[in-house]
Design a protein that fits this description.
Two copies of one chain form a homodimer. Chain A contains eight helices and eleven strands. By secondary structure, chain A is of the alpha/beta class. Chain A has two domains: about 120 residues, 3-Layer(aba) Sandwich (Rossmann fold), CATH 3.40.50.2300; about 100 residues, Winged helix-like DNA-binding domain superfamily/Winged helix DNA-binding domain (Arc Repressor Mutant, subunit A, Orthogonal Bundle), CATH 1.10.10.10. A five-stranded parallel beta sheet of chain A has the order 2-1-3-4-5, sandwiched between helices. In chain A, strands 6-7-8-9 form a four-stranded antiparallel beta sheet, with helices on one face. In chain A, strands 10-11 form a two-stranded antiparallel sheet. The two termini of chain A are about 25 Å apart. At the A-B interface, helix 4 and helix 5 of A face helix 4 and helix 5 of B. Chain A binds a DNA duplex (30 and 30 nucleotides) through helix 6 and helix 8.
Chain lengths: ~220, ~220
DNA sequence: TACCTAGCTTAGGAATCGCTTAAGTAGTTG
DNA sequence: CAACTACTTAAGCGATTCCTAAGCTAGGTA
């Protein structure tokens, strides 16, 4: 899951990035409105956290409006120092899906992120499964046929993405843009290499059907049956 | 837009109902958890506003959990008197999409309702069919008479185009400009070749009528009957 | 019937795709 | 500072896919 932060207070931005990365999200940060606008409209994010007051031509509201106009429906959490009702409602009406008044508890932001990410793709479960394979997004445990499997964090992120898109093939570019963050531009080949790693861990040692499948020309998918 | 309110404080419930009806929503009210649960799971609502503390076997959290378990994804706004973070997050994690702490401003509730109702589940044609042929644009699966068919990506793109223009013939130039990208200039003959490939996969092996038809001088079409 | 043209068919070379191995880099740990 | 781990790239291979060329068939017309 890939998240964009647009926040001009570097301290807050960096703290957020760190916290979210610990939750295994791929995080990009932008420190001003113009740059943030460009990123929000060109890169595919699963969620954006945007400060209301920003330097540059675009403030938070402007970015959201521009995004919605461009038919980008990425859920947005707006951060705001102002607490008056009028301010809140203009944020929501502009197209934000939620807002938080600063200062806020990190706990709460994380819960709201989970709430928003839960919506578009089915009900977001803590434990994702496919056949006898299971992945726990909270404890980061992965098992197949009740045997624990050790994955690196990239492998884990990749497997989580595939499980969340179960049954539908994702091509390499899509996978890269959701599993890796902005400054990391990796070659499609990297995905292929990771697929091999994953297969060596979740498929090859087991008797059952191979869960990780290649749909030539369309991408990779995990099939439950 | 139809909204369900589950709230045991009659005064608040009635005030809400009145306010929402003025906004032109159709509103149902339930005053206790058990009754509310029954309504939430049997009637189709576009949104539910549920109090956290309720008399009866089901409290607010219980209702939401039961709804989600029953695969009802109606957006839910939770009302709560408790303002501690722990309480808030359990609500969101249980499957609520938003919450409001009482007392709240009506303005704000209305803005949040608008925010939640705004994101319509995109109803775009995912599965295209013609006769007993079906093509799933998300999973890239193609079937005829329930038998799976494997297509290459070009074949798939071509078939998808024909299905989207069902019944009306498309000539080779039109097909080329829609199925191939702009810089690729291919000969009309290439289309003919691909038509053969498609026929070999979707028509020849099957008993039924040939779906892929040539309209000499006008192009190719897929006919459903 | 002869002719013309649109579409059909086949085969093969070119390009691309995915798999695999090996090796390099950066960061961490003992 | 050596050893290890996680991540990424490079390069070669085999298989599939894409596209073209060339000859063929069939429908329409004079």
């Amino acid at each position: 899951m890939r998240i964009l932060i647009i926040e001009d207070e570097h301290k807050i931005a960096r703290a957020l990035k760190k916290a979210l990365e610990q939750e295994n999200y791929a995080v990009d940060v932008s420190f001003d409105g113009d740059d943030g606008y460009a990123m929000a409209t060109t890169e595919p994010y699963d969620l954006a956290i945007i400060d209301r007051m920003l330097p540059g031509e675009y403030d938070g509201i402007g970015i959201i409006k521009a995004m919605r106009k461009a038919k980008i429906h990425t859920p947005v959490i707006m951060l705001t120092a102002k607490g008056t009702i009028a301010d809140r409602t203009t944020g929501l009406d502009a197209g934000a899906d939620d807002y938080l008044v600063k200062p806020f508890a990190l706990e709460e932001l994380l819960a709201r992120i989970r709430a928003l990410l839960r919506r578009p793709i089915e009900v977001q479960q803590v434990i994702l499964t496919a056949g006898d394979l299971s992945l726990n997004t909270v404890t980061f445990e992965v098992k197949r046929a009740d045997k624990p499997i050790t994955l690196t964090s990239k492998e884990f992120a990749l497997l989580e993405f595939l499980l969340r898109n179960q049954g539908r093939p994702s091509n390499k570019d899509t996978i890269i843009s959701h599993v890796w963050d902005y400054n990391a531009d990796v070659l499609p080949n990297t995905v292929e290499v990771y697929m091999k790693y994953l297969r060596q861990k979740i498929d090859d040692p087991f008797d059952g059907p191979h869960l990780l499948q290649t749909a030539r020309g369309f991408g990779y998918k995990i099939e439950s049956n």
